[in-house]
Amino acid sequence: MLTLDHGFLELDNNTAERSMRPIALGRKNYLFMGSEGSGKSAAIAYTLIETAKLNGVDPQAWLTDVLGRIADHKITKLDELMPWRYAEVSA
Q1: Report field, pTM of the whole predicted structure over 0.85
Q2: CB under 8 Å to 86, separation ≥6 — which residues?
Q3: For residue range 21-31, what is the model confidence (pLDDT) as tens digits?
């Protein structure tokens, strides 16, 4: 068995299931966002926040920094505003 050969592998997927729990619990509420446009906006916000978390970045600090800098930032250098780049700079 692969997990017995490699002790660093987890026996279950509880970590993944726990990270999905808030979305599953709020699913009924997300149906009533008000309109299709606001549902899309919420999906974008959740994606940004979860991407920041996956990169070990505080979502509020990252979004505050990005929203303060994005107006004057060159469109060709948007990769500099991504959470994984923020993690490199803030570390």
Answers
A1: no
A2: 52, 55, 57, 62, 65, 66
A3: 777 777 766 67
